[in-house]
Task: structure prediction
Amino acid sequence: MEYSPRAVSDQENTEVDPSRGSFGTRFGFLMAAAGSAVGLGNIWKFPYITGEYGGGAFVLVYLACIVIVGLPLMYAELIIGRRGGSDVFGALRNLTAKSGSPAGAAVSSVAGIMAVLSGLFILSFYSVVAGWAVHFLGVSVGAIPAAPGGAGPTFTALFESFEWSATWHTVFMIITVVVVSGGINGGIEKICSRLMPGLIGILLLMLVYVGVTGGLGDSLEFLFAPNFHKLSMEAVVEALGHAFFTLSLGMGAMVTYGSYLKSDRGIVRDGVTIALIDTGVALLAGTVIFAVVFAGGKEAGAGPGLVFVTLPDLFDSMPGGTVIAIAFFVLLIFAALSSAISLLEVVVSFLVDRFGVSRKAAAAGLGVAIWGLGLLSANSSLTFGIPGALSGFLGEGDKAMLDILDNLTTRVMLPLGGVLIAVTAGWLITKEDREAGFEHLERGPGYAKAWTFLIRFVAPVLVLFVLLVKAEFISLG
Ligand code: PFF
Result:
C-alpha cells in the first residue's frame, strides 16, 4: 500500500526533503513505528511489573494511561515530526519558530536536547538487556552451556560476568548500527517489515501452545479480573511511566519517524494503530507468560527475573520446551532490535540534520559512544551511591548503572520530555500545524477539539502531578 501520489499532491505542505530519505509504504512506516513501541517494555517489563503490582487493576490503570495520555501524545509527536520535517530538535524548533511564540524556542530546545540524551541513555542499557536475550537464545539452542542448577544460576552468572554481558551488548550494538546505517527505506523499513510480522506470528503460535498445555484460564483471570485492593499510588505512577516507555514517547522517536512521512493523511489512524499493536502485543505476551507461570505452579511477582529465570526453567519441563524457549528468545530479540533501531535513529537524525554528518559516520560514531556508555551497565558490580534527594526517582542506596539509567529515563526524562512536547504541541505551534492530521477526517473538528483539550490540560497536568509525587513534593500519605 504505497502512499499514493494523489494523496500527497492534494495536500498542502506535503513536500519532504528527498535527501533525508522517507518511508516507502504506509505498511513500512507502521511496522517501524510499531516496532519501536513493541520492545523489551512489552515482553520483559510489562509482565513483570504487572506481576509485581498484582494484575488486573494495574492493567486497567495502564490501559487508561495509554488512552488518556499516551494516544494524545503519540499524535502530538507524529504531527510535530511530519510538519516539522526534521530531527526531533529541528522539528520542534521549526514549528515553534513558525508560530513566533517567544517561549517556544526555549521550551523546544530543552525538549529537543533532552530527547537526544534520553535516546543515548536508554539505548546504552537497553542493548545490555537485549544482549541477555541473545545469551539465553544461545543457551536454548545448546551453543552456550547452562550453569548447573538451571536458569537461575545461568542468569546470575551472566549478570555477574562483565565479559559475557559486554560481549552480547557489543554484538547487539553492531547489528543496530548496521541497520540504521542502511537508511530509512533500505535499512529500518526493510528490517522492521520482517521483524514485526515474525514477532506477532511467534506470539500467536505460543498462544496456541499454552492453549494446549494449560494455564490460560488462570492467566486471563489474573490479567483481566481487577482487584482494586491491590492497587497503590505507587502502581499508578508506575503505570503512567510505563505507558510512556512502551509507546516510545517523550523522547521524539515518533517525531523522528513522523518526519520521514510523506503526508499528514492517516496520522491519527496510524497513531491509534501503533498503540493498538503495542497494547495487543503486551497483553498477548502477558497472557502467554502467565499461562506458563501458573501452569508450572509459580508466582507472578518474580520481578525482573520473570522472563530470564522463571520462564526458561518452566520451558525446560514442558513438552517441546526447547523449541518454545528458542521461539521466545527470538521473539524478545526481534522486539528489542526494532526498538533499539528507533533509539539510535533519534540520535543519528539529530547529527545528520543538525550538523550535516553523513548517516554512516553518525551511526558508527554514536554506536561507539553508546557502546562505551553501555559497558558501565554491563558491569553489574560497579555501583554508585544515590544522594538522598534523588532516591525517590533513582532508588535508595548503591545502584548499578543499568538501574540508574533505567530509572532516570523512565521516571524522569521521558515524562518530563512528554510534558514539554505536550506543551509545545498544545500551546506553542500554530493551529494549522496542530490540527493538520484531523483535517480530512469526517468528524475531524470534534476530534481535534477533544485532542487539544487532552494535550493542553490533561496530559501535562497528570504527568507533572506524578513527577511531583515521585519527587516527594506532594505526599499522598
Ligand atoms: N518502546 C520500547 C519498549 O517498550 O521496549 C522502548 C523505547 C523505544 C522507548 C524507543 C523509547 C524509545 F524512543
Summary: The pocket of 4-fluoro-L-phenylalanine is lined by residues 36-37, 39-42, 122, 245-246, 248, 251, 253, 339, 342-343 (CB under 6 Å).
